[in-house]
Design goal:
Layout: H1 7-12, H2 41-48, H3 52-59, H4 70-82, H5 89-96, E1 101-106, H6 113-127, E2 131-136, H7 141-153, E3 159-162, E4 174-177, E5 186-191, H8 193-206, E6 212-216, H9 224-237, E7 247-249, H10 258-270, E8 276-278, H11 282-294, E9 304-309, E10 322-325, H12 328-344, E11 353-356, E12 359-361, H13 379-386
Parallel strand pairs: 1-2, 1-3, 3-4, 4-5, 5-11, 6-7, 6-8, 8-9, 9-10
Antiparallel strand pairs: 10-12
Helix pairs in contact: 2-3, 6-12, 8-9, 10-11
């Protein structure tokens, strides 16, 4: 014999044609809340006259919810909305043994490199239904040490580093974008800097440039030494001599065009005997172009300038900037995807290194080397110097 139907419950799964809200259910019991006045999962289940398990799998969007009739799922979600039910974050974390959140550590939050990387990070984390906590350390030693600890105290499931050194003794998965430290438990998303250097220097060499000013990035930036090593090796291989008087070392902790403006202005007080400049990044290139303009030099007629990154404003600068494109958005997305995969599959093998490829984007800021070469120094000044 089948047990008798509970007609009240049966009617809940059948929408009424006369009701303005066909999924609205009369209260089966007096609504109760927790001590903070919040509607609980048990309250919701009692209100609906359904089991706690059934309501739980639906509101948590568990795969098991697909086994529950669509009408019942709609009714549960409608009641949850009506009663302003919000899942208990800590209870969910305990059940899942995860916080569904990750920590993102960045060096700074300026336009350019960071903006594009974070666009990719956000895109993937939103699709994966992961929340993130963002902290910028601005290369302050105490923050570099303290922020990873603070994020771990907030129970993040993993750390995503952007242009940031890898912290030691961290027991969660780590993915480092632009990272180079070979540390157990860390996946590094890296640009192929050898190819990037080859693309930039070959482009300048093919245009006839031989006296080129080179920028070396700030010491703390994680890419600096690796990119510089490849630039030196590639320049030698192309027969392009590197002149000490044309080397620009960036030291300022700035991510505005001032990063390149001041050092290039200082270079121009020493010499104007160069026909091209390879900037450390696009933002520094914008500052460099301004300094060249103020010195009476035209880009690219007198000096060609090539940048690095291909930030959003690069095509709109005057002149539009020739640059080495890092696929920054894709790097951010790949870093976030790699981190979530490692969180979801902690025992699966993982790559310690993921290499992405650069691309040369030729625009208006580079051209054939001027036949005058050294004549960028006015003849009258050179003559007076020769006369003593």
């Amino acid at each position: 014999m089948f047990p008798p139907f509970d007609r009240a419950k049966l009617r809940c799964d059948t929408p009424s044609a006369n009701s303005k809200n066909p999924w609205k259910l009369p209260l089966t019991s007096k609504r109760t809340t927790d001590k903070n006045g919040n509607v609980t999962l048990r309250t919701l289940a009692t209100h609906l006259g359904l089991s706690l398990t059934t309501v739980s799998v639906v509101v948590s969007d568990s795969p098991a919810a697909q086994a529950i009739p669509l009408a019942t799922r709609k009714r549960i979600l409608a009641a949850a909305s009506e009663l302003h039910y919000r899942p208990n974050y800590f209870a969910q974390s305990l059940r899942r043994k995860r916080s569904m959140s990750v920590g993102v550590l960045v060096s700074e939050m300026s336009e350019g490199y960071f903006t594009l990387v974070m666009n990719g990070v956000e895109e993937y984390l939103v699709s994966a239904k992961y929340f993130y906590l963002l902290a910028a350390h601005y290369w302050q030693p105490e923050l570099l040490e303290e922020y990873p600890k603070m994020l771990l105290e907030r129970s993040v499931d993993g750390l995503l580093l952007v242009n940031t050194p890898t912290p030691s003794k961290v027991q969660v998965p780590i993915v480092s974008i632009s990272g180079h430290q070979a540390v157990p438990g860390v996946t590094n998303i890296q640009l192929n800097h050898k190819l990037a250097a080859r693309l930039a220097i070959k482009h300048l060499a093919d245009l006839g440039h031989r006296r080129v000013a080179f920028m070396k990035g700030q010491e703390q930036t994680v890419d600096t030494d690796y990119r510089w090593k490849e630039i030196l090796e590639t320049a030698r291989a192309c027969g392009m001599e590197l002149h000490q008087d044309l080397l620009i070392r960036l030291t300022e902790n700035s991510w505005s065009p001032a990063l390149g403006y001041g050092p290039v202005k200082a270079l121009l007080t020493r010499t104007k005997d160069f026909t091209a400049l390879f900037a450390f990044n696009d933002i520094a290139a914008f500052g460099a172009i301004r300094a060249l303009h103020e010195a009476g030099l035209r880009v690219p007629d007198d000096v060609s300038v090539i940048g690095f990154d291909d930030v959003l404003s690069a095509p709109f600068h005057i002149p539009s900037l020739t640059t080495i494109r890092q696929p920054l958005r894709e790097m951010g997305k790949a870093g976030a995807e790699c981190l979530i995969n490692r969180i979801n599959h902690p025992k699966a093998p993982y790559a310690q290194q993921v290499i992405v490829q650069p691309e040369l984007v030729v625009r208006e800021s580079t051209a054939e080397a001027s036949i005058r070469r050294s004549s960028v120094v006015p003849k009258r000044k050179r003559a007076s110097r020769n006369l003593g």
